[in-house]
Amino acid sequence: MDPGSTQPAIETTGLTKRFGARTALDGIDLQVPRGCAFGFLGPNGAGKTTIIRTLLGLTHASAGSMHLLGYPVPAERAQALRRVGAIVEEPRFHMHLSGRENLRLVSAVRGPETSDRIDPALARVGLAERAGEKVKSYSMGMRQRLGVARCLLADPLLLILDEPTNGLDPGGIQEFREMIRAMVEQEGRTVFISSHLLDEVEKTCDAAAIVDRGKIVTQGAIADLAAGAGARHELIVGVDDRDRALGLLAASELVLEARPDEEGIRVVLAGEPQTAALLNAQLVGAGVGVTRLEPVRHSLEQRFLQVTSRLDADLVPEAVKV
Q: How far apart, in whole angstroms, are the C-alpha atoms of residue 229 and residue 189?
């Protein structure tokens, strides 16, 4: 058991990294809870890769403090990294060897206890049937999955993955998402995912942080991030008599705002989401037929565009370059 089992998997306070006159990380305060999938998002040059490299000790912080699995880094970096698996950028392998042979080489370095984990790791990432083939025949997506298998040899409590779905087709992305969820929900691991795919982070992760210009501008549960601070509870209401419904809604103490919408009537509730049932009862009791009562879903993409300070020319909705 690691010494900080009740502490966050990753915790930084005032973490700062300067490259000469340029500040890449500016007082980063980050907390990644245990046992969750955590997304890390930001535009080009936001500082995502820098913080990963700093956490792993691949570059030194200029100021601030950080802990991995409760261990202070860099003071106890070796102890921390024993239970951390990481892929930074594209994983590298001996291309003339098979997937299994590559893992055997890693196992020989890590210790004999890891050899029994080779086959389960290959099975976990869906490469059991291709493990005997040379890596040079693997697609980029297969090499990404082999990289995750390599990480699993250490039986990590924390996985740090940089753009893990690169090279995967839609089916592969779905399989990867299910794999990450299983690692979190069934195995209790923490997975920290740096990704430019907002939709994938929204579907895969429990929580996330958005970084911009070296600063974290917001972090929290995915649903809370998408809604934004102080977000209002909104509904789309479909009725058989729009004009009458609008009059009733305008007079209701349960409603802050009601306006026509192309999908029906957009309603901002005065209370919590549960008041939607009371509102439905009011309309039905007044003789208005309700054909639709649906919460408005807030998008992580919308929130991302709102809180980041600049957009790159090549930014597109499904793939924000980081």
A: 29
* Structure-token pair, residue 86: 């990481």
Beta strands in 134-288 (DSSP E): 158-162, 190-194, 207-212, 215-221, 234-239, 255-261, 264-269
> Distance between CA 200 and CA 13 in Å, rounded?
28
Sign of CA dihedral 299, 300, 301, 306: positive
Residues near 37 by Cβ (< 8 Å), separated by ≥ 6?
180, 181, 184, 190, 191, 193, 204, 205, 206, 207
pLDDT, one tens digit per residue, over 73-115 is 999 999 999 999 998 877 889 999 999 999 999 999 888 889 9
Residue range 27-51, pLDDT digits in tens: 999 999 999 999 998 877 778 889 9
Amino acid letter, residue 155? D
- On whether the CB atoms of residues 212 and 308 are closer than 8 A, the answer is yes
What pTM does this model have? 0.74
Which residue carries 């980050």 as its tokens? Answer: 30
pLDDT exceeds 70 at position 321: no
Residue type at position 107: S
Q: What is the pLDDT of residues 217-261, one digit of tens each?
A: 888 888 777 766 445 678 899 999 999 999 999 999 999 989 998
Decide: 228 and 240 in contact? Cβ < 8 Å: no
